[in-house]
């Protein structure tokens, strides 16, 4: 039994995204060397050797990969911890373990686009930050009060409540008004920049920054 090409590609992509914080469980002298381009079927056979164990491990890796993909497509943010647990199990089966980096602080991302959120999360976690994210702007303030992040990355164009209103509410609450806010937007409109700075001036703060364009 071998990993099918689709699941093999999916697992290698997870390896690529996390490779800078992964270390081998076994040394190069006693086990295979793995990287995101490795043939995972060869790695599995080198690690486990026994045919029965190779088959059971391959089945488990395929099961975990399919589960990870399904959760990522349906509700990635609501199941972030579950996704991380699956990744840890996958990496362990491939002879790898995570090496936790020193945390640089906690960042809250508020953006209604899951693709943007996922890209930011991957990048910031690689830099050693603890990251939380929400896609519903109406709960941004309550989430910030609960998490008390060191920084809020805030999209401007969101349904129900835009980033400007979220920022105003953050700055109006004594519990969150000192948290720095970084606006993220693809807009280059001069009026948006002025409004962003008006919000910080309204609170006599200099910690709200407008960044454009959003990538």
Keywords:
5-stranded parallel sheet; 13% strand; elongated; disordered C terminus; two-stranded antiparallel sheet; single chain; 2 domains; Rossmann fold
Can you walk through the features of this model?
- The chain has 215 residues and is an alpha/beta fold.
- Helices cover 49% and strands 13% of the residues.
- The protein is built from 8 helices and 7 strands, in the order H-E-H-H-H-E-E-H-E-H-E-H-E-H-E.
- The strands form 2 sheets. It has a 5-stranded parallel sheet, with helices on both faces.
Overall mean confidence score, pLDDT? 81
How does the overall form come out from the CA principal axes? Answer: elongated
| Count of β-strands | 7
CATH superfamily of the largest domain: Response regulator
Rg over CA atoms, rounded to whole Å, is: 21 Å
**End-to-end gap:** 41 Å
Give the CATH architecture of the largest domain. 3-Layer(aba) Sandwich
List low-pLDDT spans.
Answer: 202-215
Helix/strand order: HEHHHEEHEHEHEHE
Tell me what portion of residues adopts beta-strand conformation: 5-15%
Strand order of the largest sheet: 4-3-5-6-7
Q: Describe the main β-sheet briefly.
A: 5 strands, parallel
Helix count equals: 8
């Amino acid at each position: 039994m071998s990993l099918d090409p689709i699941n093999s590609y999916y697992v290698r992509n997870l390896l690529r995204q996390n490779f800078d914080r992964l270390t081998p469980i076994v040394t190069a002298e006693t086990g295979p060397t793995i990287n995101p381009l490795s043939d995972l079927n060869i790695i599995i056979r080198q690690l486990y050797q026994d045919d029965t164990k190779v088959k059971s491990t391959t089945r488990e890796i395929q099961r975990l990969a399919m589960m990870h993909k399904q959760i990522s497509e349906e509700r990635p943010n609501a199941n972030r911890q579950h996704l991380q647990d699956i990744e840890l199990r996958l990496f362990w089966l491939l002879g790898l373990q995570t090496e936790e980096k020193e945390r640089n602080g906690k960042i809250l991302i508020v953006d209604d686009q899951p693709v943007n959120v996922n890209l930011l999360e991957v990048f910031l976690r690689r830099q050693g930050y603890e990251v939380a994210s929400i896609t519903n702007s109406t709960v941004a303030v309550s989430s910030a009060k609960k998490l008390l992040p060191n920084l809020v990355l805030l999209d401007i164009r969101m349904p129900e409540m835009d980033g400007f209103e979220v920022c105003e509410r953050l700055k109006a609450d004594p519990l969150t008004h000192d948290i720095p806010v970084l606006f993220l937007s693809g807009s280059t409109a001069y009026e948006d920049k002025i409004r962003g700075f008006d919000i910080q001036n309204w609170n006599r703060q200099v910690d709200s920054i407008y960044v454009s364009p959003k990538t």
